[in-house]
Write a structure and sequence with these properties.
- The chain has helices at residues 2-14, 31-46, 60-70, 74-80, 93-105, 116-120, 122-126, 135-148, 159-173, 185-194, 197-203, and strands at residues 18-23, 50-55.
- With 211 residues, it is mainly α.
- The protein has a two-stranded parallel sheet.
């Protein structure tokens, strides 16, 4: 199988007998596709390559696991669905800091000195500014947006909304870049309002009904 060959080649290049495979939107897979993944596992196992598969998906994925168990498809469950791990959004200021630090530290291309923050704000970055410094500002901006919209429950920011907010701040700051520059709190507030967070909560029904 083509996938088996590519995984084997990747493992050989890395000099490793262990491979991690992430399958997104796994709730869309049907039984035949799960059978195929199981066959890939078996083929690699015979070649002494250990494949760990992470199925990433919506809540329906748990229902699929239950259906496979009821149908007696224990080999699929044992190979692909052993443990359930909830995937949370950003839930506190420490999570915000961790993600913002990724923009500050991750270089692209990998061998360059250009992080995502430095690409947009080279002068401010070289003078010492880091997005990480504004973790509290961004968290407070989302908190204010959450409460102003009267959304129920605790704040949990989806990564899509978070990334969009950071993108807004970086692009709006690009023309103002200078040594000593840092985004104003009002810009973080604007980004939290414009990133689609409220709209996504409304779309998923996670909003208080109006009286």
């Amino acid at each position: 199988m083509r996938l088996t060959l590519r995984i084997r080649e990747a493992a050989a290049r890395a000099g490793s007998g262990t491979v991690l495979l992430f399958c997104d939107e796994a709730q869309r897979y049907n039984e035949n596709e799960y059978e195929w993944l199981r066959d890939v596992h078996d083929a690699l196992d015979r070649q002494q390559i250990k494949l760990f598969t992470f199925l990433v998906g919506q809540q329906e994925l748990l229902s699929q696991k239950t259906a496979l168990q009821i149908a007696g498809k224990t080999q699929i469950v044992a190979r692909l669905m052993v443990e359930e791990l909830p995937f949370y959004g950003i839930r506190n200021v420490d999570d915000v800091a961790t993600c913002l630090n990724g923009y500050d530290q991750t270089a692209y291309p990998e061998t360059s000195d250009w992080s995502f923050t430095r690409f947009y704000l080279p002068q401010a970055f070289d003078a010492g500014y880091r997005l990480l410094d504004d973790a509290g500002e961004l968290w407070r901006a989302f908190e204010a947006t959450h409460h102003k919209a009267r959304l129920p429950g605790r704040l949990e920011i989806p990564m899509e909304s978070f990334a969009r907010a950071v993108e807004i701040v970086l692009k709006d700051s690009e023309l103002m870049d200078a040594p000593g520059y840092c985004p104003e709190p009002t810009l973080w507030t604007h980004a939290a309002h414009q990133c689609g967070y409220i709209q996504s909560r409304h779309a998923t029904g996670q909003v208080l009904a109006t009286a």
